[in-house]
Amino acid sequence: MLIILAFVFSTLMSCNGDEPQADYAGIIAGTYTGTVTTGTGTAGGITTITKRSETSVDMDIMAGSHSLVIPWIKVSSVEDNVYILSFTITDKSLAGEVEGNTLTYTLASGVLTGTFTGTR
């Protein structure tokens, strides 16, 4: 009986909800090189993802001669090796995905929309 109680107690203690969260941001951090496509054409692009916390990142975006920094992008996971990026503020949004070493996202700001695809 004592062994059963010890097992139940240890099981309850391990399910306390304080388990550490996976480090999604650390997994996807790095520099991705690819292209940016807008309504006016395509240009070379580089996006650097920097870990801010286990579930948020900052993105440094270079497209042609333009640069942009987006802080506090939320990172979540839908399955092994697939991570979702999301950011929304007023009329600006970013929706993306990292699968393996490939980053794809769409950035919308007012009437301007661009899509980046690149690899790390």
Layout of secondary structure:
Elements (H helix, E strand, L loop, with lengths): L1 H13 L9 H5 L1 E9 L2 E13 L2 E8 L2 E14 L2 E8 L2 E8 L2 E8 L2 E8 L1
Overall shape: globular
Total strand count, please? Answer: 8
Note the total helix count. 2
Regions with little confidence, pLDDT below 50 for 5+ residues: 1-20
Strand order of the largest sheet: 1-2-3-4-5-6-7-8
Keyword list:
8 strands, 120 residues, 63% strand, alpha+beta, 2 helices
Explained architecture:
This protein is an alpha+beta fold and 120 residues long. The chain has 2 helices and 8 strands. The chain has an 8-stranded antiparallel barrel with strand order 1-2-3-4-5-6-7-8. Strand 3 (56-63) and strand 4 form a beta hairpin. The longest helix is centred in the first third of the chain and has 13 residues, at 2-14. It is globular and about 40 Å long. The relative contact order is 0.19.
In short:
This protein is an alpha+beta fold.
